Amino acid sequence: MKAEKDKANMERDLQEARSNWRKAKKISLTTQLEDNKRLADAEARDRSSLMTKYKNLTTDLESSRERIENEHERKSDSLKALSKAQAEINCGNPDLRPKVIGEWKAKANDLTAEIDASNKECRNYNSELSVFVPLMRSCRTIDVVKRKIRTWPMRS
Questions:
Q1: What is the predicted pLDDT for the residue at 56?
Q2: Structure pTM?
Q3: d(Cα 33, Cα 29) in Å, to the nearest integer?
C-alpha cells in the first residue's frame, strides 16, 4: 500500500514536472519570439533611416554632378570667349592685349578652382555611397531572415 502511494506521488510529481517544463519551454520560446520581433522592428527602423540617408546622398550626388557639368560648360564658354578675345586683340590694339589676357586668365583660373572643388565634393559623395551600398544589401538579407522567422510555427 505504501509503495502504491509512493508510486502515485512520484507519478503526480513527474506529471507536474513535465507540465512545468512545457510551460517554461513555451515561455522561453515566446520570450525569444518577442525578442526577435523587437530586434526585427529595430532593424526595420534602422533600415528605413539608412534608406532615407541613402536617398538624400543620391540626390546630393546628382545635384553635384549637375553643378560640375554646369561649371564645365561655363569654363568651356569662357575659354571660347578668351580665344575669341585673343584673336580680336591680335588684330587690334597691341597695348591692350596683356591686360585683357590677364583678366581672362584670372577668370579661367577661378573657374578651374570651382570645378576642382566640385570634383572633390563629388568624390566625397561617391565614397559615402560606397559605404551605404553594402549596408543596403545587409538590410535586404536581414529582411529575408525576419520573414523566415515570422513563418516559423509556434510549438508548445
A1: 93
A2: 0.42
A3: 6
